[in-house]
Amino acid sequence: MESSSLVAPIVVVAVVAVILVLFFTFVPVGLWISSLAAGVKVKIFSLVGMRLRRVVPSRIVLPLVKATKAGLSLSVNQLEAHYLAGGNVDGVVDALIASARAGIDLTFEKAAAIDLAGRNVLEAVKMSVNPKVIETPNISAVAKDGIELLVKARVTVRTNLERLVGGAGESTIIARIGEGIVTTVGSAGSHKSVLENPDDISKLILAKGLDAGTAFEILSIDIADIDIGRNIGAQLQSLQAEADKNIAQAKAEERRAMAVAKEQEMRAYVVEAEAEVPKALAYALREGKMGIMDYYDLQNVKADTRMRENIAGTETNAKSILEGDSSEQ
């Protein structure tokens, strides 16, 4: 009897302990007490509701305490809605505090929109206060005299919070600066004038308003370095001369081919005419316009001609042989 009377209180104490552990595990009483001590009124049932909505209460209460201490007026619903949307609540609160200290007009809705757009709102605020320097790579541009210039620029920009959502990034700024450098150098009459006055590039580029539609405001463009590259004009002239030479060679080859064809055609005419000679002789003999003695005289003339040609060829060969021997000696 005594043992049974002792078991009952132990069971009751164990059950109460389990209930208390589960209660304090599910209900963030410590966080609720901390918020009250910081002057932030958060209902304990709101914290329980966060648990039910699978929201980490510390991710809402601690940024809210920080914002309240900084003098910002934010509500639990605003922070919880942003958290449920997948935003970085702590980063947004830090950005709001930084913008308030810097005197920048930034609302919670604007900061939340920037954060949900995938941009670091705190970095944007810092860049708005402390401008950033973007250095472009070497940009190749050719002046009118054909000389290539390699230009490197440093662009000082600061964030434009109003255009941060939907505005273009740094790559667009670099691309537009490169386009402006190519256009400015290309319109210069000589590369020497660009080397003498590099600030003209900065002035002309700034006048074009290249930061339109971007998330930045261009404060200054400084030409860091200008190097002389290739003589593009001379290379183009060399390539043009090579192309003209190839065209001339092709036309000369065409004329030579036409001349060879014409020569072959004329030889064909000669062969054709020579083929008509025996027919003409036969016709003359048959018609009695030429006697047999005339025919023999013609054959003798042809034989004499061939003999002279053979003698002339023999003498020419002998002379060339003698000249070759004398040169060897």
Distance between the termini: 150 Å
Helix content: 55-70%
Strand content: 5-15%
Number of strands: 4
Low-confidence stretches: none
What structural class do helix, strand and pairing data support? alpha+beta
Mass-distribution shape: elongated
Write the element-wise H/E pattern from the N-terminal end onward.
Answer: HHHHHHHHEEEHHHEHH
Mean pLDDT: 79
Largest sheet: 4 strands, antiparallel
Describe the overall structure:
Helix 4 (57-69) runs parallel beside helix 6, helix 6 packs across helix 7 (108-116) and helix 6 (89-102) packs parallel to helix 8. 19% of the residues are buried. The protein is elongated and about 165 Å long. It has 329 residues and is an alpha+beta fold. Strands 1, 2, 3 and 4 form a 4-stranded antiparallel sheet that branches. A hairpin with a 4-residue loop joins strand 2 (139-142) and strand 3. It has helices spanning 2-26, 29-37, 44-52, 57-69, 76-84, 89-102, 108-116, 121-129, 170-186, 191-196, 199-207, 232-287, 292-328, and strands spanning 132-135, 139-142, 147-159, 216-231. It has 13 helices and 4 strands.
Keywords:
329 residues; alpha+beta; four-stranded antiparallel sheet; 13 helices; 4 strands; 67% helix; elongated
